[in-house]
Specification:
mainly alpha, two-stranded antiparallel sheet
C-alpha cells in the first residue's frame, strides 16, 4: 500500500515516519512517539507545529512565539512568523504589521541589549497592527514600518518629550523610503523585511548587537506564495526557484 505524501506546513518538504520526538517551532511543546501507536510524521529539517499553535490565529500565536523564540536573527524570527499556515493562507494584511516589532525586540532581548517583558513586546506589535489593511495606498503609510518605529521607541524607552524620538521617526522614514523606491504592487513580506532593516539601521549606530543583525541583502522566503509578487523588481526576490525555507 502506497503511503500518502504529506508535506511540512513550514518548509514543504516531504514528511517521514520516524521514531523521534519533535519540538514545536512556535512554543517548544514536545511531542513524543506513543508506544503501540504508528510512528509520527516528522519533517526532515526538524520543523513541527503542535495542534494548539497550528490552529491559532496570529494574534493568539504571537504570545507563544514571543515567550519561546531563541534566535538572535530578527529576519529568522520574522520568517518563522510569516511561515505559519494562517499567514500562508492570507499573504497580505495587517497581521504582518506586528511582526517587525516582535522579531526585532525578541532578537534584541535574546542578545541581552533589551530587557523588556513579553507584554512590552506585544504592546509594540499592537501599535503596528493597529494600522488598517490598505493603509499603504489609502494613507501612504505602512503598519509594518510603524512597527519598526514602535520597536525603536520601545528599546530606547522614548516618551512624549524625549529628544530621542527622532530615532523612531527615522526608522519609519527609512523603512517607508525603501518601500517607495521599489514602488509597484504591494507586498507585505517586503514591508516586513524593509521595516526590520530600517530599525536596524538606526539601532545599529548605537548598539553593536543590532549592527551585527544587519544584512547586506535579505532574500525572500515566500516569493512562490505571493500571487502579486513583483519578482525581479523586488530587491528580495530570490529567482524562479523560490521556496519557503524558514530557519
Amino acid at each position: 500500500m502506497m503511503l500518502p505524501v504529506l508535506r511540512c506546513p513550514l518548509c514543504s518538504k516531504i514528511l517521514e515516519r520516524r521514531a523521534e520526538k519533535a519540538v514545536c517551532s512556535y512554543c517548544d511543546e514536545v511531542d513524543e512517539p506513543q508506544e503501540g501507536a504508528p510512528l509520527p510524521w516528522r519533517c526532515p529539517d526538524g520543523h513541527f507545529i503542535c495542534e494548539t499553535c497550528r490552529s491559532s490565529e496570529p494574534e493568539r500565536l504571537w504570545p507563544r512565539l514571543v515567550a519561546t523564540a531563541k534566535s538572535l536573527d530578527p529576519y529568522a524570527i520574522a520568517n518563522l512568523a510569516m511561515a505559519h499556515p494562517s499567514m500562508r493562507q492570507t499573504p497580505y494584511g495587517p497581521d504582518h504589521h506586528g511582526i517587525p516589532a516582535i522579531a526585532l525586540l525578541v532578537a534584541l532581548r535574546n542578545a541581552g541589549v533589551f530587557t523588556g517583558t513579553d507584554q512590552r513586546i506585544l504592546a509594540a506589535a499592537r501599535r503596528g497592527r493597529a494600522m488598517p489593511s490598505g493603509a499603504c495606498y489609502l494613507e501612504g503609510g505602512c503598519g509594518a514600518c510603524i512597527g519598526a518605529g514602535a520597536a525603536v521607541s520601545t528599546v530606547l524607552k522614548l516618551g512624549l518629550k524625549s529628544t530621542g524620538r527622532s530615532w523612531a521617526l527615522r526608522a519609519v522614514s527609512l523603512s517607508l523610503g525603501a518601500l517607495a523606491e521599489t514602488g509597484g504592487l504591494r507586498c507585505c513580506k517586503e514591508a516586513v523585511y524593509e521595516a526590520i532593516g530600517g530599525a536596524l539601521a538606526v539601532l545599529g549606530s548605537m548598539m553593536p548587537a543590532a549592527a551585527s543583525m544587519q544584512r547586506e541583502r535579505v532574500v525572500c522566503s515566500f516569493a512562490s506564495d505571493m500571487p502579486e509578487c513583483k519578482r525581479s523588481a523586488c530587491p528580495h526576490y530570490p529567482g524562479d526557484s523560490a521556496a519557503m525555507r524558514p530557519e
